[in-house]
Amino acid sequence: MNITPPPDPVTTLADPGTPFAVVDVHKTLGNIERLAKRAERLGVALRPHMKTAKSLDIAALMHDGPPCPVTVSTLAEAEAFADGGYTDITYAVGIDPHKLPRVVALLRRGVTVRVLLDSSEQAASVAHAAREAGLAVPAQIEIDCDGHRGGLEPDAPGLIGIGRVLHEAGCLDGVLTHAGESYFARTPEEQRLAARNERDTAVTAAERLRAAGLPVRTVSVGSTPTAHAAEDLTGVTELRAGNYVFFDLVMAGLGVCRVEDLALSVAVTVIGHRPEHGRIVTDGGWMAMSRDRGTAGQAQDQGYGLVLDLAGNLIPNLVMSAASQEHGTLTTRDGADLPDLPIGTRLRVLPNHACATAAQFRGYHVIDSALTSDAAPAIQADWERVTGW
Amino acid sequence: MNITPPPDPVTTLADPGTPFAVVDVHKTLGNIERLAKRAERLGVALRPHMKTAKSLDIAALMHDGPPCPVTVSTLAEAEAFADGGYTDITYAVGIDPHKLPRVVALLRRGVTVRVLLDSSEQAASVAHAAREAGLAVPAQIEIDCDGHRGGLEPDAPGLIGIGRVLHEAGCLDGVLTHAGESYFARTPEEQRLAARNERDTAVTAAERLRAAGLPVRTVSVGSTPTAHAAEDLTGVTELRAGNYVFFDLVMAGLGVCRVEDLALSVAVTVIGHRPEHGRIVTDGGWMAMSRDRGTAGQAQDQGYGLVLDLAGNLIPNLVMSAASQEHGTLTTRDGADLPDLPIGTRLRVLPNHACATAAQFRGYHVIDSALTSDAAPAIQADWERVTGW
After folding, report:
1. Which residues on A lie below 8 Å from B355 (Cβ)?
2. What is the pLDDT of residue B386?
3. Which among A150, A353, A360 is the nearest to B272, CB-wise?
4. Which residue of A67, A94, B313, B329 has the fewest C-beta atoms within 10 A of its own C-beta?
5. What is residue B8's predicted lDDT score, i.e. its pLDDT?
């Protein structure tokens, strides 16, 4: 006699303890496809930035065949992606010379890891490390297009000298710029101008190096807003963006995506009611959402996030307006009545900044909104994140 | 022939890759001792909150003999501390009924875990779980003393009913309140008043329950500011505080501690200079510091943090004024000249909010400033943090 065991109960978003991070793979795929098509139309390679999702499983959604080129924000990411078979990596944070041995170790494994720098001290360190190791340490010179952070201005007197030091050690790969100020470009026109400026600046720097007889292979530009706004990338060889895999309320506020494109949310549970204060309390505080309040400076401040039911439908007028470590406070906008959400009700909160919110978790519970409109969507997979440095 | 191996080189703060979290055990011990003496003087038990350090090693500094009573902010902490031999635990976040099976599992192991609640729905869930499990689930009723977050006001009509439901199931342990608004009490006098109000509110609620014939064993109060300001805790049985083990710039801004008491810092490395923008760039961004900007609302905004040399000496006028994911921006105050900090220089940054900054790391490199004034202090130990929920 055969006894057929009962089928395993399906695990849904109603099951794990809250708070936890939810990724909707359907939305993620839509976001990935949209930018892939853009890059194709613009005639540039895409080098997605792993700093947002930090997930080999999400990276795998970006390519059918062999691993794609990737950008990383830490050497821990570089090492994890190298372990996962990725061999074409750009570490897009100015290199601390102390970290060069880890870069060399990856290069010795046959993994191309490009480093970034904007000073003659760093160039000398890279050249020295390359000579010591007897191999090339491919390096890009960071170019500043908008005063946001690091980099050399394209007409900086030191540019050619740095290029020469790198070239003489066999290490000059190219130039890289990042339009960090595009996060504050509030109209499509400002975003187009930021994209044009980002391209122009990178190409100008590349041309200066070439005019000095220095070979420039890579001209790399990108940020999520400019990647979605660029109209002409002549002279650019590759486009970078990271946030777009998930998007978030900051990007929706900039008009780079719609709120319904947001692929990352945090599942929380109602643990209290304070009707006299117009307040619902949840178990998702800043430990779950992060302290990022990127929409505070936008036209529409979204507090710590907008609130969905567990199925993913936006609850009108409800916003997570305050947070302590393990408590979230939900209030309504415009004096709307509080919805009826009893103790134990599960909700999902859309974050201000996907990079910061995702970083509060060790992994994602993955759903697919194309497969279900159930009140508690089934969990299709659990995906890990790379953590640390 | 004996070959004596060379002694292991001492690992110092100059060795691990940055960014990383540094705990000065000497300062931590000083902070722990200060509050322990206060609690003794006030005649109350101390139940330190593990939510800040989340470390069994730091908890071990708080007691000589058997494990002390602890407060936790997640069940992951409760489970980790139970595994570490702690048997007297208060989980001080309103209970999600879905989490009761994990509480019951701990109770079955002989670990006392008290839950918190402020509604009749939660009280019914706790009573039901206790009856199903055939054991008491000790519960405290959360009392709101300042409108900060959750809890029942001490004169709330529902208080007695909730107490009765719990008592009939053998679950009523007591009352708990937290003066969350004390973080905004800017003078010693305001902090003393917040502490008095916190005590009065908790004791009033306890007396109401007792007057209704309900036994109240525990009357628990606390926050780091009120714990350091309270003058009289008559009627209170225990004091809670968490942040004080490390303290931070918010607490220094409130005058609860001095900047030199801060025991947690983040080691970072200089990776760039932008003198034309008055800026030094480091490899410690918000991923390392968190997005917490708690001092933004204080009289002295400290940006993302104050800057020390690696030995721990404050660098005058230097402040971490901006952050992106893996980049920190240092600027000077009052038009002071930028200090000479070459590429590769290691620094330490004191955070706004120790709870949030510590949460960005999996553990701490531990130094002891009583043992050394070396430029690169020796690492005495590596201590892990509890993560997740």
Report:
1. 325
2. 98
3. A150
4. B313
5. 64
Q: Which CATH superfamily includes the segment(s) B87-241?
A: Alanine racemase (3.20.20.10)
| Helix or strand holding residue A172 (H, E) | strand A172-177
Q: B267: which residues sit within 8 A by CB, 6+ positions away?
A: B13, B16, B18, B19, B20, B21, B22, B284, B310, B346, B347, B348, B365
Which residue has 């904007």 as its token pair?
A: A118
pLDDT, tens digit, for every residue of B196-216? 999 999 999 999 999 999 999
**Identity of residue A357:** T
- Say what the pTM is: 0.97
Q: What residues in B contact A98, CB-CB < 8 Å? A: 17-18, 269, 344
Contact B249, B259 (CB under 8 A): yes
Contact yes or no for A94 and B329 at CB 8 A: no
Query: What distance in Å separates residue B97's CA from the closest CA in chain A?
Result: 6
| Cβ <8 Å between B96 and A344 | yes
The arithmetic mean of pLDDT across residues A47-59, rounded, is: 98
B159 pLDDT exceeds 50? Answer: yes
What proportion of chain B, given as a percentage, has pLDDT over 90?
A: 95
Structure tokens at A146: 């908008």
CA distance B17 to A98: 7
- Model pLDDT for residues A359-378, shown as the tens digit of each residue: 999 999 999 999 988 999 99
- Chain A residue closest in CA terms to B120: A343
- Hey, are the CB atoms on B272 and A329 less than 8 Å from each other? no
Chain B residues in contact with A147 by the CB 8 A cut-off are 277
CA distances from A154 to A147, A238, B272, B281 (A): 12, 18, 16, 19
A-chain residue closest to B95, CA distance: A271
Who among A17, A93, A291 is closest to B292 (CB)?
A291
The CA–CA distances, whole Å, from A287 to A53, B223, B256, B364 equal 18, 18, 24, 18
Q: How far is A116 from chain B (nearest CA, A)?
A: 10
Strand partners, B174: B140, B218
Positions of E strands within chain B: 20-24, 45-46, 70-72, 88-94, 112-117, 139-143, 172-177, 218-221, 238-239, 264-274, 279-282, 305-309, 314-324, 327-332, 346-350, 363-367, 381-384
Ordered by start, the domain boundaries in chain B are 87-241, 259-384
User: Taking 70 as the threshold, does the pLDDT of residue B3 lie above it?
Assistant: no
Measure the CA–CA gap between A324 and B248, rounded to whole angstroms.
16
Q: A-B interface: how many C-beta pairs under 8 angstroms?
A: 149
Average pLDDT over residues A333-348: 95
| CB nearest A325 (choices: B150, B326, B355) | B355
A1/chain B closest Cα distance in angstroms: 36
**B290 vs chain A: nearest CA distance in angstroms?**
7
Average pLDDT score over chain B: 96
Q: Which of these, A295, A260, A266, lies nearest to A283 by C-alpha position?
A: A266
The H or E element containing residue A355 is helix A354-358
Q: What is the pLDDT of residues A319-336, one digit of tens each?
A: 999 999 999 999 999 889
- Identify the pLDDT of residue A8: 64
Q: CB–CB of B150 and A271 under 8 A?
A: yes
| CATH number for the segment(s) B259-384 | 2.40.37.20
Nearest to A97 among B277, B343, B387 (CB): B343
CA of B16 vs chain A CAs: smallest distance (Å): 9
- pLDDT at position B104: 98
pLDDT band (50, 70, 90) for residue B1? very low
* Residue B335, pLDDT above cutoff 90: no
Judging contacts by C-beta atoms under 8 Å, the chain B residues touching residue A387 are 362
**pLDDT at residue A354 tops 50:** yes
